Amino acid sequence: MRRRRRDGRVRRADLVRQHRARLGVLYGGVFLALSSLIVRLGEVQVVQGAEYRASEQVIHYARIPVLPQRGWIYDANGQVLAWDVPVVKIELVRSRPLPSATLRREAQLLAPVLETTPSALYQKMISNASALQVTLATHVSDAQVAFVVEHEAELPGIQVTQDYERQYPYGDLAGQVLGYVGAITAQNVGQYPGYLDNQQVGETGLEYEYEHLLQGKPGYRLVAINSTGAGLGVMKEVKPVGGDNIQLTLDGREQAATQEIIQQMLASSTGQHISYVAAVMLNVQTGGVIAMASYPYLDPNWYVNGSYVKHAHYLETSGAQMNYAIQAINYPGSTVKPANLIAAMNAGVVNPQTRILDNGYIYVGTQIIHEDGGIAFGWVNPVEALTVSSDVFMYEVGLRLGKWLGSSDTSGGTYPASAGSYQHYLDTDFAKGINQIFQEEENFGLGTKTGIDLPYEVPGEFFIEDYQKGNIQVPYNLQASEASIRKTGQYVNYGSPASLADADIGQSQMFSPIQLAVYAMTLADQGIRLKPHLLERVYAPNGTPKNGAKPIFTYKPQVEGVVKAKLWEWNLVKQGMHGVTSNPAGTAYYAFLGAHYEAAGKTGTAQIVMNGQRTDNSVFICYAPLNHPLVSVAVMAPGGGYGAQFSAIIARKMIDAYFDEHHEPWMPKSQWTSTRIPQSWFSSPAYLIPEKSP
Question: Transmembrane stretches, by residue range (predicted)?
Answer without folding.
Answer: 21-39
